[in-house]
Amino acid sequence: MNSILEVFKKTKVENRAALIAYLPAGFPNKEKSSEILRLILDNGADMVEVGLPYSDPLMDGPTIQQAVEISLENKTSIDDCFQIVKELSTSKKPVLIMSYYSPIEKYGVSKFVENFALANGAGVITPDLTIEEAGPWILKTTEQEIARVFVVAPSSKAARLTKVASEVTGFVYAASLMGVTGTRAQVSSKAEELVANLRKTTDLPIAVGLGVSTPAQAKTVGAFADGVIVGSAFVKILLENSDFEKAKTLIVELTQQLRAALPR
Q1: Total of domains in the chain
Q2: pLDDT tens digit string along 203-244?
Q3: Catalytic residue among 42, 46, 60, 128
Q4: What's the whole-model pTM score?
Q5: What is the CATH classification number for the domain harbouring 240?
């Protein structure tokens, strides 16, 4: 059993959803992004996603886009991302990379997967990679025992959900709405319907992302999903607080509050 599935097995026994946090690598700089993700892991997150910065982030809303622009200005490279993954892997909790497929392909699929494995990474989320184009990715991640996470949308039909889930080896990333990431007043009602439809096609854990930013929203989603993904809320704190020590305090508080909201 891979480390991601082990986490979900543990949280199921504890009758709660897993807390999964996202932050772009290199934001607000390379060292601080690693420090923030470590703080989040130490204060209740079950796993983290290290965002690989990309100049055309189709799935990301304005908050994360702004953070990614800062990361790119800091010249954050794929190798920098691997270094952050390696540093965080000492937490003994799964560390994933979330990346669009173009930079992976440009870097070299084999080289990317091999170096990610050397950094003790657990899995990779590829939000824009379709199953039809994923042959080389599936082959190499299988060889290196790297978990694959694919994203499904509320518009996906049953046959599509089955096809996508059949190639997932980590968790299924259920997008709560047709749109981009960001904090919202409430979680889309389509999220629960999508999870219910997925339950009919797979026994894999299902985590919901896009629009979850408060403890109340996390509690709502955690009642029907196996995992809750939070990203923009952490980024927003860092963007709005130039005092890094204050930002760290607020991030610790949010992490603890989100984690406390997840027991069912």
Answers
A1: 1
A2: 999 999 988 899 999 999 999 999 999 999 999 999 999 999
A3: 60
A4: 0.94
A5: 3.20.20.70
